[in-house]
# Entry
Amino acid sequence: MKPFSGSLERLISALNKLPGIGPKSAQRLAFYILKSDAGEAKELASAIIDAREKLRYCSSCGNITEEDSCKLCRDLSRDRTTVCVVEQVQDIFVIENTGEYRGLYHVLMGALSPLDGVGPDDLRIKELLERVKAGGIKEIIVATDPNAEGEATAMYLSKLLKPLKVKVTRLAHGIPMGGELEYADEVTLARALQGRTEI
# Structure
């Protein structure tokens, strides 16, 4: 016999479907929602529904927006000759938080992963090539994750983009700030040696 009523079970089950939320976290969130006042719960539900109905993907870069073109693509002060290619929309927020990048973006919506059935046609690669062929882009920064899928995607993009006479660069990999050499794995240390810069 289940200890919770149908409505509570349904709420826990729905929360459990969210990424990174296990059964215990789902229960904690459900009980938090039940303890909050009705106005707070309605505000949360309304925000979810509002976001789901109003948000869509930017027709140019794939970022999330309420309009056809996102805020970053409409910003004329950004460097329109440089495009940073990322796997997911949330990667844009991470890069923007550095305050170091002022170019445009292109979201692939994933990375190549043959084992998971994700091939080139499942990603927004064709759209990227169309943007480059349209002209004006001088550099593509490939900012895919430093894992097997991200590396395979970076290599694949490089082979497609080089013939289009555009500079293709990759984010540097290596020892993170505050890291210690003794804890670095061999691959990370090898990348750090390959990507060393003059000081």
